[in-house]
Every structure is written in structure tokens, then in C-alpha cells.
What does this fold into?
Amino acid sequence: MLVWERVSAGVLGYGRRPEGIAADSLLAVVLLAGAIGAAALWPDGRALDAAGVLLLGCCYLVLPARRRWPMAVLCVILVAAVPYHLLQYGHESTIPAGVVALFTVASTGPLWRAVLVAGTLAGVIVFVMTVLISADHGPREALGTLGWIVAVVVAGQALRAHRGYVAALLDQAEREAQSREDRALRRAAEERLLIARDLHDLLAHTITLIGVQAGAAAHKLADHDRPVERDELSGSFTTIANACRECRAELRATLTVLRGGTTAGVPDGPGEAVADVAGIADLADAVRAAGIEVKLTSDGSEGALSPAAGLTAYRIAQEALTNVVKHADARRVEIDMRQEPGGVRLTISDDGRGGEPSGGGYGIHGMTERAQLVAGTVTARPGPEGGFTVAALLPLDRLAPQPRSADLENVD
It folds into this structure.
């Protein structure tokens, strides 16, 4: 298809490319030389002279302009061919020029124009043949001429339809390629956003926990009026070590996915389990280690969440508890998870100083985006009596068995 397209563009002609004009110029010279040679070697009428060569030149040397002005070129050829035939030169010598010009008109314009031009040209040719040249030309010659004209017009329209078909295919391929590129860019942006959220949630929580524990240990060591309790220091450093280990495991899993791999090859170890809703209890323990009282209640609805929604619940709780430790100056925080008609509601509320959230961070925005990815919602606002409350409503996993009604589990 592409080979034929190049041949038709370069030889049969359409467009205005410089290489097309060069091909037309070469075609005109070759056809003119052939016409002159045929008229000189096999004359069927008047011998070819200077006037005949001039008229033939007018017929052929205008062909390089046929792509730009197809109708004008056909008219010039017709004007030069009529006196050529009236002077009884070799009639066959002008046929190639007329065929090429008519083919160009038919292949570059709509069907109605091609039919109109073909009808006019047929009328002129039949009139010249039967009236002006010789009355001996009968219906057979006229019908033969009409047949050639119809064949050329049909071929030109076929080429035009072929070019339209190829152009439509190329346009469709270009749109599909652009669509694939847009989808790839969108997926890359979504992946970058997801990785940014994961790194933010992971590092912010871990660094906050390490900072709190390190500050507490430093304060204990700096208090000369109070003897240092080895168990207290050991607990702080153990919490820091566990946080570093868990952060390293999650960071390694994230980087493995970023490099195009999967977490299947990451060896398991302490703290290296995939984060899910069950890990909220570990987050509560970490907050307790920071000196904040934590109350965790659940009605056993964890199993009603899909893995994606469970991970979302874990990340939302992680970010909310990180904010409590960093900003709330709270003494107590409550974590409640229970099933509602619209899904599973996770609520984290504290008794800190509250206030509207600042617009400089990414935590609440990231929680909202995470919830939207699993068709959930998040609200974050100050409590009615102080403190701050984050509430997430996450959809149920329709494929999972619904949890039984259970007594509330209180973990203080």
C-alpha cells in the first residue's frame, strides 16, 4: 500500500511537493520525446513540422503544473490539441497528455466535477472528430473515445478514494498513537502521585515517631535530678529501631515497584508484612509509645474491606495519627472502626488543640485522594468540643463475607 502510494504521488500525481514537480517535469520530457518520435516515424497524416512540434510542446510542457492547476492544464492541452488535429498531424501523439491531465482532474476533485469535465471533453472531441476533421469517423470511433474518457475518470476517482482511505487509516493510527501516549503519560503521573503519597505517609510517620522517641530519650538523659531508668531508655530505643526496620521494609517494597519489579521477591522479615487494616493496632502501639493514650474500638468489620480499601484505611490512620503526634499536643486519641449502611467508617479523633487544618501540607489532601481511589470519602475538621477528627467512609468488598455482629473490642 505504501509503495503504491509513493508511486501514485510521484508519477500519477497529487499534492504540491517539490519532488512531485520534478517527477512531472521528467514525465513531460519523456512523453514529449515519445510523441515527437512517434509522429515523425509513423505519420498517419501530415508530416510533423515546426508548427506540429510547437503544438505538441504546448500539450506536454504544461504537465509539471498539473498538480497546482489541474483544470488550467487540461484547458491548455485541449486548446493546443484542437488545432493540432485540425492540421491533420498524427492524432495519437496528443493522447498521453490528455489522459494524464484528465486523470489528474479526476483524482484531485469531487465526482461531480470529474463527470462535468469528462462530459464537456467528450463533446468537444466527438465534435472535432466527426465535424471538423472528417465525416468518415463513425459511431465506433466516438464510442471508443467516450470509453477511454470514462475509464480515465473512473481510475482517477478510484485513486482519490484510495488516497482518502489511506489518509483515514494514517489519521486513525496517529490518533491511536497519541491516545496511547496520553494514556502512558497519565499512568506515569498517577504512579508518581501514588509513590509520592506512599513515601509521604511512610516517612512522615516514621520520622515523627523517631523524633518523639529520640527527644524523650534525650530529655531523660539531660535530667540530672532524676536517675536514668534503663528500661525507659531501652523502650525508646527499641521503638526507634522497630520504626526504622519497618520503614526500611516498606521503602524497599516501594522502590522495588518503582524499578519495575514486584514485591514478591522481597524477603519477609519482622515488620515486613504488607500494610493493611490489621496494622492499625501496631500504629496505635506506636502512638502509645510516644506517650499518648490510645483507645481502639472495632466491631470486626475489617474483613468487609477489600485489600485496596484495607490499605487505604491503614494509610489514612497512619497519616491521621502522625498529625496527632506532630501537631495536636493531645493526651488522648480514639480510633473507631464500625460498619454502616454505606460502608466501613474509620474515625480518628483526639483531644488536642484542634483548629482548622493548615493549607501548607499534603496529609489531608493525600488522604482524600487515597479514599477517592477506592470510591470512599474523607472528612477532616475540628471537633465540637476541641480536638480534631478525621473520618473516612470506605466501601465494602461485595465479594467478602459480611462480618458478624460482635461485641465491641476495646483496646486501651
Observations:
- Residues 1-16, 262-273, 399-412 have pLDDT under 50 and may be disordered.
